[in-house]
Amino acid sequence: MAESVRAAVLTAPGRYEVQEFPRPTLADGALLMQVELSGICGTDKHTYAGETKQYAGTPAETDTPFPIIQGHENVGIVTEITPRAAERIEFYGRRLKVGDRITHCPDIVCGRCYTCKHVSGWVWCDNSECYGNSLTSADPPHLLGGWAEQMYLRPDTFVYKVPDGLSPRIAVLAELMACTASLDKLKEFSSYAFEGFNSGDTVVVIGSGPLGLLHVAKADLMGAGQIIATDLSSYRLDWAKRCGADEVLDVTATSAEERIDRVRALTGGRGADVVLHMANTPRSFVEGIEMLKRGGMMLEMGNFADTGETSINVHRHVCSKNIRLVGLTNHPSTGYGPALRLLERYADRYPFEEMVTHTYGLDAAEQAMRTSMSPESMKVAIAP
What we know:
Blueprint: E1 4-12, E2 15-22, E3 31-39, H1 42-48, E4 53-54, E5 62-63, E6 73-81, H2 83-88, E7 101-104, E8 107-108, H3 114-118, E9 129-130, E10 150-153, E11 159-161, H4 168-171, H5 174-179, H6 181-188, E12 202-206, H7 210-221, E13 226-231, H8 234-242, E14 247-250, H9 256-265, E15 272-277, H10 285-291, E16 292-300, H11 314-319, E17 324-327, H12 336-345, E18 356-360, H13 365-372, E19 379-382
Parallel strand pairs: 12-13, 12-15, 13-14, 15-16, 16-17, 18-19
Antiparallel strand pairs: 1-2, 3-6, 3-10, 3-19, 4-5, 6-7, 7-11, 8-9
Helix pairs in contact: 9-10
Organism: Microlunatus ginsengisoli
Protein name: Alcohol dehydrogenase catalytic domain-containing protein
Domain Alcohol dehydrogenase-like N-terminal: 28-164
């Protein structure tokens, strides 16, 4: 096996270089994965643009370091594994071996802080680290992101064996599908009258990129009565229809007032029961609140990186409307098993296999990034 490993390295915002690194020696409990596909996430786009602050205002606040190997939506094949990792690293206790297809949670948690000890499942660690986001390639073992031929997975990683029937093109969506556990969180509120996400509810999804589309599909699976999707791209709105949206609103062809009025017209004048804000900009945040019924619930998940501020009237938008506003960064480590099962079970119902619309090699990392920003793309992936 080769003694050096190639990787696409983001040396500074907007600047990629293909570099070679020594093949790492595995620590006890670690493994090496040959990367098959690594999806480009909205977070990666922010980092490329220099918008590097994440978890702002929390003990986990960080600025992405450079140089870095990006890529945290990864699927690959085990190429080397230590005996302890073979026995212990798989999240559900399954034994791993060379040749197994795996995916992993990008977040590494300490297990000791207050949040780790009090918040079950969700990776809200005060000391969290993240593959492809907070671990620089300058330090050994270097290969801590998916835009590399081989990726090093530390002993404290949550690793998941991919079902045999799931192709890499679908399995690379596992991290995003795990994020749709947000809808399960909203469902918890439905034990109270008029709150949360109930069967038959009208759900609006603002932002129809890959994250938004998987939320459209999950809302459909969970019994939404009506799903309305918005986006700047007619191409992506066509995808939203394929994933279960009943009505789509083109942001480039309508005003915010027209979109709000349309949502109200489709709900008997009340407004949506649930709004899912999946756009990576704060500009449409207040619009989402305006679309809500009185007592409705809004989930904010799109602004994972610090993209700036927006103005809100607390009386009008929060207090008077009696809204329930839920902010979620990230997903639960417990969400991968359910995500993989849903992707496998419903692959014939939704276009999961087609969702990776473009793939690029390491030498074309910048082209891949620019394509991912195009309105005529869906999930763009690096295939090292």
